[in-house]
Amino acid sequence: MSKFIFVTGGVISGLGKGVAAASIGNLLKARGYSVFVLKLDPYLNLDPGVMSPYEHGEVYVTADGGETDLDLGHYERFINENFSKDSNYTSGKIFSNILEKERKGLYYGKTVQFIPHVTDEIISIIKNIEQKYQSDFVIVEIGGTVGDIESNPFIYAIAQMGSEFNGQNTFFVHVTYVPFLETSKDFKTKPTQDSVNKLKGMGIKPNMILLRANHFLPDSILIKVANATFINKENVISAPDLENVYQMPLYLENENTASIILNYFKMKKRKPKLNKWIKFVNKVEKDKKKTLNIKMLGKYTAFSDAYKSINEALKISAIDLNYHIKLDYIDAELLNENNIKQMLNGAHGVVILPGFGARGFEGKVLGALYTREKNIPTLGICLGMQAMTVAQARLKGIKNATSKEFANKNKQETYILDLIKGKKADDQIGGTLRLGESETVFKKDSLIAKYYQTTNVFERHRHRYEVQEKYIPILEDEDFSFSGYHPELKLVESCEDKSKDFYIGVQYHPEFTARPLAPHKLFNAFIKKSANKK
Ligand code: GLN
């Protein structure tokens, strides 16, 4: 039977519960234990697929095509494991299961209620995962903050699991926040005490408290929290902001986090194999060769979590190659011929970011034309690649080239990109994109094959539009080519200008497979070429 580790959050949101859950997973896996991670999100959408990145940050795509919470990215990067659709459930999904059962009469005439029906549904999801994956540990992170209306059923459900197993198979980690009052130069523990009391009121006594704060907390504060909550002092852990999130597993290792958990479950402590992780983290602290300015051309520029995995993929490659990296977000909508030189001034490299909808697309096309002309290393991802393709069409004289996604009935337009074969315009928008992992075969002599050091890769997708086959011969020339295709469906997967240092677009999302223990080859090549830029 699996052991369950539940991670809840208190006081405020955005504390890094995901990083905490992922770090615990990292430490258990380093000891040879198998780990599965599940994120339960209290909001009512079925998945984050149709939510604005401003609401929710990036939509993380799993290999099997799940559109999931960005915490899944932390889990996969920290634990170096591919998770699946099963790793993310929302209240919306849970209620939809319940309503389906209700229509089938499976509640046999009963009034369907939060307790026991919603809580039972939550418990059965967790137990099904245990059955299906049979991992040593199932780590369950509950989204939101304890005390939110929405998260109550989840808290009651995991409390019920705790009492069902009499505490033997369940371990509760509560992540809270300790504010520092400048005026009195004092850390304040009252919000944490309140939050633990709320949990207790719902039937959970945490086994461990991670106290997030801007600084290290003095022992006196840890003792105060331990005394006020009746939790062992060793199990109250100060978790300050670190220079780099990838240091968190090592920090928690130092605080005996994994040993405490294994001790509790009476499992073998085992010596962790952390050499590779330590090697990567040591690079964070090393002196850097130089700082690279990377301009990120997109539309959700006020909220960098919208591009979380791309940021991380770039940072991981920069750490790996020993550069400092500065990511500078530019709102593509504000770009025009007059200001582009100044807006991209000082760029070692440019990433043309993914996205949906017309806003900012013309700015991305302008950016694609400019960086190509100036030979600034450029990586286009998904909509970014589509912008590079439209830019090429304009260079070929098709001045009204665009994507059908932005069709304007009042204009004469040429759609270089149209819906992927088989997709209809009137499809419902949620869950109907081309999603998940599939194969790409690169042309042998392409630059992208050289950078990947292979002609066959598996990467993840999330799009609805594709380059139209009939335009391929019109757009390709001596320099510009479509260098990668899906082997059977013949969908275009990449483009490049081989006369440039790095001008590559990919229809898929390489950022989802970049890991600290396996920096992504394409991002590494992009960083190297950016570093060489004069
Ligand atoms: N909007 C584009 C499409 O649907 C690109 C999607 C993306 O960038 N993820 O094809």
Automatic annotation (TrEMBL):
InterPro entries per record: Class_I_gatase-like, CTP_synthase, CTP_synthase_N, GATASE, GATase1_CTP_Synthase, P-loop_NTPase
Pathway this chain belongs to: Pyrimidine metabolism; CTP biosynthesis via de novo pathway; CTP from UDP: step 2/2
The enzyme's E.C. designation = 6.3.4.2
User: Is this entry keyworded Nucleus?
Assistant: no
Residue ranges constituting the Glutamine amidotransferase domain according to the UniProt record: 304-528
Q: Any idea which UniProt keywords this protein has?
A: ATP-binding, Glutamine amidotransferase, Ligase, Nucleotide-binding, Pyrimidine biosynthesis
Pfam families given in the database record = CTP_synth_N, GATase
Please tell me which top-level EC class this enzyme sits in: ligase
Q: Which residue intervals define the domain CTP synthase N-terminal in the entry?
A: 3-267
SUPFAM superfamilies assigned: Class I glutamine amidotransferase-like, P-loop containing nucleoside triphosphate hydrolases
A GO term for molecular function: CTP synthase activity
Name the catalysed reactions.
UTP + L-glutamine + ATP + H2O = CTP + L-glutamate + ADP + phosphate + 2 H(+)
Record carries keyword Ligase: yes
Which family does the record assign?
Answer: Belongs to the CTP synthase family.
Q: Indicate what this protein is called per its UniProt record.
A: CTP synthase (glutamine hydrolyzing)
